[in-house]
Design a protein that fits this description.
The protein is α/β, with parallel strands linked by helices. The protein contains seven helices and ten strands. The longest helix has 19 residues. The protein is globular, with a radius of gyration of 16 Å. The structure holds zinc ion.
Amino acid sequence: MRRRSPAAVVCAGAILLAGCAGAAGEHTGADGRGQSPAHASSDVRGPDRGGRDDLPPVVDHVRTRDRVVFLTYDDGAERDPGFVTLVRERRLPVSMFLTDSVVGPGYGHFARLRAVGASIQNHTLDHPALRGLPYAGQRAEICGQQHKLRSRFGIRPRLFRPPYGTYDTTTLRAAADCGITAVVLWRASANAEGELTYTRGRPGLRPGDIVSVPSGETASPTLTERTERLLREIERRGLRVGRLEDYL
Ligand SMILES: [Zn+2]
């Protein structure tokens, strides 16, 4: 089933749940290679919702019976032409969370990716750690990138990933005010070799998992090679790559 339903999102409207709050702590994926995850614990609290009930859900996993996982890529530092070919040939509906200051003049590469089926989403203008920043600053980072992506691609992204996975209630307010409908973290993160680590729960990919694929720090293995390795793992578990927006 690919329809959105209110029950589709594990953490929707429930960011005080330990599982979700844990994933929102120290970042371990795209932006924090090598750090230990801040596992869920009873003393980790999600931000209070400030009396607003229109704030976007924070998700690291989607509840679904479909045998899908979601591949998400951050920043936009790697512009591997082979990756465009891979996305096209394998028809991979991947999500690219772009930061303007990282992409710089490289938006053409992402236009090509979009043309072959990738989606483009928001990862701020300049990649600050948002938690604790004033509303105006957080809003400028999120809405500013919405405007950039709109002018570059004519789109209005609905999904936002906070840099380092760190956020607070102000982030959720600002995101909502910029048109964001879901804040996307991850349960699994690929390391430099394309092997997976998990922010919470038992290791092993499960249907509905959101996977973060960080930019590589070295030229080898390439993004294409790391993704191919992930695809082998995904297929080995009888899973396929789903389009995240169809589930959020
Ligand atoms: Zn990032």
